[in-house]
């Protein structure tokens, strides 16, 4: 019942009810549950099947291929998909740098473009870069300390070059944007 209650709230944020949730949103709900553990999508699916039997008829298309794919995705499939993900290319980093300096782009997207550059140049995961303390801009680098990196509970210092491959001061521009948004926080880089 707990999973059904959470799904009802999740559906409400997407402006639908649990009674008529389309298959795409239903599959997205199962996929979003995976962040809590590999078995959670299956648990959500079983809860929704119970809900459909007890309180139906609903329009939940539990047999849809997208829903079944998310329900059946196991931990090894998730690992395989992650290992097949392409590495960031220099072209991608240069494109993020171009976004950072684009005057027509929203400043929030510019902040995320800078974060993507930090991830690529610092060889970090997204969750590593979020848990940052002591982020400072030096003459030639951005320095910081990840306090939660790759499942380690100890602090890991990092450094990222301030200047891009083409010599542009992307780090200085990114820091201006962060300061305008009152970031970083005391123990995180960007709010989750």
What is the gist of this entry?
With 192 residues, the chain is mostly helical. It is built from 9 helices and 3 strands; from the N terminus they run H-H-H-H-H-H-H-H-E-E-E-H.
Helical fraction equals 40-55%
Largest sheet: 3 strands, antiparallel
Extract low-pLDDT stretches: none
Number of helices in the DSSP assignment: 9
Shape: elongated
The count of β-strands is 3
Spatial order of the strands forming the largest sheet: 1-2-3
Radius of gyration: 21 Å
Which class best fits the helix and strand makeup? mainly alpha
* SSE series: HHHHHHHHEEEH
Please tell me about this protein's structure.
The protein is mainly alpha-helical. 52% of the residues lie in helices and 9% in strands. The protein has helices at residues 2-13, 23-33, 40-55, 65-72, 75-83, 90-101, 107-122, 126-130, 170-180; strands spanning 132-137, 141-146, 156-161. A 3-stranded antiparallel sheet has the order 1-2-3. The relative contact order is 0.10.
């Amino acid at each position: 019942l707990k999973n059904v209650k959470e799904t009802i709230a999740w559906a409400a944020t997407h402006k639908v009810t649990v009674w008529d949730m389309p298959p795409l949103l239903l599959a997205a709900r199962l996929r979003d549950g995976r962040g809590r553990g590999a078995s959670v999508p299956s648990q959500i699916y079983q809860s929704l099947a119970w809900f459909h039997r007890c309180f139906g008829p609903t329009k939940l298309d539990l047999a849809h291929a997208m829903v079944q794919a998310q329900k059946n995705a196991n931990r090894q499939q998730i690992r395989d998909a992650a290992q097949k993900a392409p590495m960031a290319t220099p072209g991608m980093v240069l494109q993020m740098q171009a976004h950072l300096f684009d005057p027509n782009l929203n400043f929030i997207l510019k902040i995320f473009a800078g974060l993507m550059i930090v991830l690529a140049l610092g060889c970090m995961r997204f969750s590593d870069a979020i848990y940052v303390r002591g982020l400072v801009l030096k003459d030639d680098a951005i320095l910081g300390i990840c306090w939660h990196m790759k499942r380690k509970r100890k602090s890991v210092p990092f450094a990222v070059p301030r200047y891009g491959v083409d010599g542009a001061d992307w780090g200085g521009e990114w820091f201006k944007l962060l300061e305008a948004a009152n970031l970083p926080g005391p123990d995180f880089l960007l709010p989750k």
